[in-house]
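=== RUN LOG ===
request id: a7f3
mode: sequence -> structure
chains: 1
length: 505
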Amino acid sequence: MRTDIDGCEDVRRWTFGVRSSSRPVKNILVVGETGTGKTTFINTLVNYLLGVQWGDNIWFQITQEDKEKSQAKSQTTAITVYEVFAESSSLRIIDTPGYGSTDGIDFDQMVAENLHRLFRSEDGIHEISAVGLVVKSGQNRLTDFQRYIFDAVLSLFGKDIEKNIAVLITHSDGMPEDDVISALKEADVPCAKDVNGEPVHFQFNNRQSKDHKEKEKKKYQEAWERGYCSLERFMIFLEKADVKELSMTEKVLRERKRLEACVNNIQDAIRMEELKQNQLQQTQRALEENIEKMGRNENFTYEVEEPFKQLEPINLPWRYLTKKATCCTRCEENCHYPGCWWVKDLAWCSAMKNNRCTVCTRRCPVSDHVKHNKIYVPRIRKVKKTAHDLLKQYNKQVDIQNALQEELFKSEATKKTLLLQAYQCIVQLEEIALKKDSMSTLIHLDFLIEKMNELGDGEKVEKLVHLNEKYQAANRSRWVWWVPERLRKVQEKVSTFLVSSDHSA
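=== RESULT ===
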């Protein structure tokens, strides 16, 4: 029986059997690259739970392996939960789609959003027993694509989940998997460790459902039995593993989304401050050019570029599933955009906490916000001003220049406050995330490094540069095939900053 979780067809549940209240349900999240045998593993696990034996000559298949699908083609962002209630045990197997679509980070953010929906929904998953990382036997290094998948998924979890992560080695002949283990160590993949400090792993041959000739029967039976023993060991690992509440994971997901919303809002806010500064500077120049007329109390006119916010329809490519934004009507700000998904209650939006917004300037209540297909965009319009306008605004002629300068100082202080908010978001994510060098954090580093450098905050610039250097050291050859152009620009800006720092030293 299929049902949609939280009313969303991209987060779906298939239920097999009837749940018994006397048996606890274990939840397993399975992650793997297309072609590693993730789907076959899930089917193998289900057959084990149903008690299928070698001599039964039967094979249950609840998932369908799509042999035509590849990482080069667009893939579904749907999360599927398979609930299997058998006599011996009850499991929920969470099957994730293939990360790393050619749609890039937009695709992956939708997958992350669906996981977030699964973890926070009333009828979703609120605890987890194990995370299975599926790797193919014989690999002496993880592919760039695999490393990206693992990093992208693990970056969604809190640090408390590490001891629940196990490696599932598929297409194995039962011999020691030294190459795979070395590859996992080299890639610094976080996972549970055995008494010798080695990654906890289980081997599977992926031949259970294949037809075979009579002369091959013995070899296939031996392969089946090895896989059966691995499943027994895996189930023991599952029983012993401490069940982890997903509260920290939900916090990581929410905080990551809040960071993205915060930084995007900050970029608009800083743009507005810079436009205000430009207007003030134009006013200062007009005042200097007409200082004698001001002294004689003569009127004069001048033109300035006045900033304002205009509500405009969201213009995104057709492939985006949502074109919505949570906006504050009071502050006229985009509190959650892009990536704002449908929620039953606006108070559930990632930008909200305790029924107030955590992003907009005044931290307004939920009631001041709307979700629609429009966003506020900084714009300018040319406006003619007069000396009378200046005197009306600043009351006394002697105060005008000081007042303009004071407004410029206030504007700079506002920019600094906004940047510090974004910086603190990144610091907080560093403290709670299992994988710290996630893409959704790093795509903002170019913007933050540039603006922090303008403020002359060397300590924070150094911290951000260090994050980027750590990312480069760990991921020097990763994700080149799809990394957004703006992320590549980070390297150029960091290099320029480091060179200028060396010269100044």
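=== NOTES ===
The CA atoms of residues 169 and 203 lie 5 Å apart.
The radius of gyration is 28 Å.
=== END ===
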